[in-house]
Amino acid sequence: MFRSLFHTFTIVIAATLGATGALAQTPQPSPAANSGITATGVIGQVKSIDAAAKQMVVQTDSGAQVNIALSDKTAYKRLPPGETTLAKATDISLSDVSEGDRVWARGRVAADQKSVPALQLIVMSKGDIAKKHEAEMAEWRRPGVRGVIASINPATKEFSVASRNLMGVQQTVVVSLSEKVDMKRYPTESIKFSDAKASSFSDLKAGDQVRAVGERSTDGTHLTAEKVLSDPHRIVGGTVTAIDTAAGEVKINDLKTKKPLTIIIKKDTVLRRFPENAAAMFMGGMGGPGAGAGQGAGAGAGQNQGQAPPQKPQGERPQGAGPGGTPGGGMRMGGGGMSMADLLERLPTISISELKIGDMIIMSSTETADPTKLTAFTMVAGVEPLLTMMAARQQGAGQARPAAVDLNSSFGGMFGGMGAP
Fold it and tell me: Which domains, from first to last, does the chain contain?
């Protein structure tokens, strides 16, 4: 979220240069990536305020802390998040600024970049930011489809999205674009939704994870997308062999290649754990490991044979349904069961200290310059029972091995966009 506000402030400052005397005489360089500091301003989050001393500490996105000197000549303005000019800015005072607010402090930055006397302070309040964040979250939680792009049709500007449910049944939905579709795409090196860039149909690639929201057809096989978020991140799995909590690194043996990988855990990485009792519930309540393939395939157009569909717990958000289900039905996707994306998004979050040697994990990850290292986007631990069940349902065998699971088709779409935004 802060990154998008950073770009907003960059535009706003260009619009206000003419109102600040000498500052308007100097060409304004763009802030260095992640620095938030230029010669004439600092962008960041308010860490502390000393109103009596007229001092403020602002921390940039890269972690640098800058002392902001305020005076009777400092002008204060509040700007709603998302605005790119000062047309809707309102005059405020220092007493209206709080810790956690996002600010652009404008003034000549000291040579050591440690301080700046602020001529103007443009503020986006943390409360307004939170409201905008929640509104964006609500938009992406509308009924839609998540999965992996199976094919692309440039002539019709349509693409098909494949996903699996817990029964191992695959569903395919054809997605077309509305006239005013909002398309975004994660950069390959980023794991933050706020870094997602505006994109176009030509950016989509087969194998991408994708989330699309919009109006779904009655039979659930087609979606007219109003929003599309594509994600080129790689899905891998493996067994944890070492954990370095201080360094934020986890070593695994790759499930498919059997080769060692080092996983980098950043502050934005989302860690979850699959509960052991949940695996037992699904394997028992859904007929055990050997029951899935035949039942699911036979019921592919609707619900599981001889079994009532799972009930949607009160308060859970709606999700798109598969063929034969009700669009927005949440728990009824594909063959009448919860999708992998729905399941894994509901799991509790954990910290790196709660990981264990021997845990089997799946994760979405970004590439690094070193092919033996990956940066984790989202990681889910304790998934061996789930992978065993998925393999059994896909193959119709009682004791299939976790390595048999196609991670991309089974879990594609579970990461892209949520935690979005």
Answer: 2-131 (2.40.50.140), 138-231 (2.40.50.320), 234-303+318-411 (2.40.50.320)
